[in-house]
Sequence to fold (114 residues):
Amino acid sequence: MVLLLGILVLVPIACSASGASASCRDAVAPVLLNSPGPKVPGTFWQTHEAGKVVLQVWVETDGRVTFQRVVKTSGAEYSDLAAQAVRSWRYKPATCGGQPTRTDLTISMSFARE
Fold:
């Protein structure tokens, strides 16, 4: 299986301090540290063609990825595999004012046979 990934990072433009939003002039995007691919069952390609999934996720302040929603998919099986894989990814979190901040990411994952 060949897996192609594309990640669109939406850098935080505001951060919260005591519940008030403030402009973040020194925002730093998250850095991907570990991104294991999806665990595709051996029989998957017997019934599936190439496909693509676009996910919207959060990178939390501790670098964990939490799932938000499927933006686009070639099917539920693709979405399940992509979401499961992305949940195991780890990032150095984004920062705002030197403090870790939750960041919204859009991740595109393409599936293709070898």
